[in-house]
Amino acid sequence: MKTELLDSVESKSLKKEIPYFEIGDLVDVQCRIREGAKTRVQIFSGTVIARKGRGINETFTVRRVSGDEGVERIFPINSPNVVDVRAIRSGKTRRAKLYYLRQRSGKGIRLPQRHSKHTVTK
């Protein structure tokens, strides 16, 4: 009863369509930045290393290496400041959380590419 009530209240704040992406995917996250009176869209590119929560509390963590320094950002999926999430490349993983990438550097960060089973042939 309690969860049904919460779900009905939360459903008004949820986005209609959530873009499809998985753990290990290389994504471009378009986030809205407000500077004074102006707003602009900034792209944060990186690998999705975690996804957690459900409903309005669902978040995902994106990691990238910028100048020998690892940068991670946590984005709420249903935030109005997250304009779009676009999957660039799909990575093959065997885990739900890729926290082990934090200890790796160089080519060790790269994940093998996942090949889809449904390929178009001419």
Number of helices: 1
Strand content bin: 35-45%
Give the SSE order as H and E letters.
HEEEEE
CATH architectural arrangement of the domain at 26-103: Roll
Largest sheet properties? 5 strands, antiparallel
Characterize this entry briefly.
The protein has one helix at residues 2-10; strands spanning 26-35, 38-52, 59-65, 70-76, 82-89. By secondary structure, it is mainly β. Strand 3 (59-65) and strand 4 (70-76) form a beta hairpin.
Describe what you observe in this structure.
- Helices cover 7% and strands 39% of the residues.
- Strand 1 and strand 2 form a beta hairpin.
- It has a domain at 26-103: SH3 type barrels (Roll).
- It is mainly beta and 122 residues long.
- It is globular.
Question: Which short descriptors sum up this protein?
Answer:
mainly beta, SH3 type barrels, five-stranded antiparallel beta sheet, 1 helix, 5 strands
Ordered list of secondary-structure elements with their pairings:
Elements: H1 2-10, E1 26-35, E2 38-52, E3 59-65, E4 70-76, E5 82-89
Antiparallel strand pairs: 1-2, 1-5, 2-3, 3-4
